From TrEMBL:
Superkingdom, taxonomy of origin: Bacteria
Alphabetized GO MF terms: hydrolase activity
Membrane-traversing stretches: 64-82, 94-114, 126-149, 156-174
Pfam family, one: YdjM
This protein's UniProt keywords: Hydrolase, Membrane, Transmembrane, Transmembrane helix
Keyword Hydrolase found: yes
PANTHER family, sorted: HYPOTHETICAL MEMBRANE SPANNING PROTEIN, MEMBRANE-BOUND METAL-DEPENDENT HYDROLASE
Protein known as: Metal-dependent hydrolase
Amino acid sequence: MDPLTQGLLGASAVANTRMANAPRGAALGLGFLGGMAADLDVLIRSSSDPLLFLEFHRQFTHSLIFIPFGGLLCGLVLHALFAKRKGISRWQSILFCTLGYATHALLDACTTYGTQLFWPFSNERISWNVISIIDPLYTLPIAALLALSLGAKRQWLARIALAWVFAYPALGWYQRERAEDLGYQLAASRQHQVVSLSAKPSFANLLLWKVVYRTPEYFYVDAVRMGIRPKIIEGTAIAPLDIERDLPWLQQDSQQAADLERFRWFSQDYIALSANNPLQVIDLRYSLLPNETEALWGIELSPQHSEQHVQYFTQRRDTKTKTAKFWEMLLH
């Protein structure tokens, strides 16, 4: 999720605990900063290896087993920086930061990106697909309720904020189940044999969903609008990446072959050859429009430099036109 939402969840966790004599505003600040801290892993990058950040973002800092260590580090640092001057004890600083830190990975797992909750025991990327990476309908009520709860005799509003923290993803789970059911119905109407199927919320809402299912031959990408009366917006199909067919020149023991497998793991095997460039492999999970196969990012290989790392790229074509189309799909 975005840093603001992460921080607000951390503050919400602290707001619903006993603070003894700790100043409420400072305590919530510790929870807020603790809630954001796990994303410091974005600083782990390499100028020579463009995929390094994909491996380490949402890795050890987001593991459930790392929560006590992350909370301890945050608490000690923030206690020295400001909490001590606010009259908060060292153990309170650690407690509030740990509560905030503990919310981070679980919220990330609610999105589609993938979070290594069980590192180092497993490198599986957990993604429950119940909320978009950015969703103001989730974030703004939490922010407003927490702000109001700072007033005298308004702490009960923090409990409503915490209820919203859980209620909105629960609604997302319900919508995801409906979207997946509709996806299976669509596949059956096409007489397709489904190998796997997933539904993911489109940007900033729980109404319009991207449904991707795989048959032995193709990925099929469609959008479904999950209102009172569900609506299918049919999309396109694309063949899954087949290395022997699509990249016959790629040497199995080369660096680029290893990087391709790293990207496959990151993308949870939702990869295909770009229709616009035969050297680009794309991540089908993310696109500007939920029924298209033009992905937001991917990797580019080079037959002439097989021992060098692949290049990571992002792309956004016809943004204005697609944004207008997105709103039309969402509202109608």
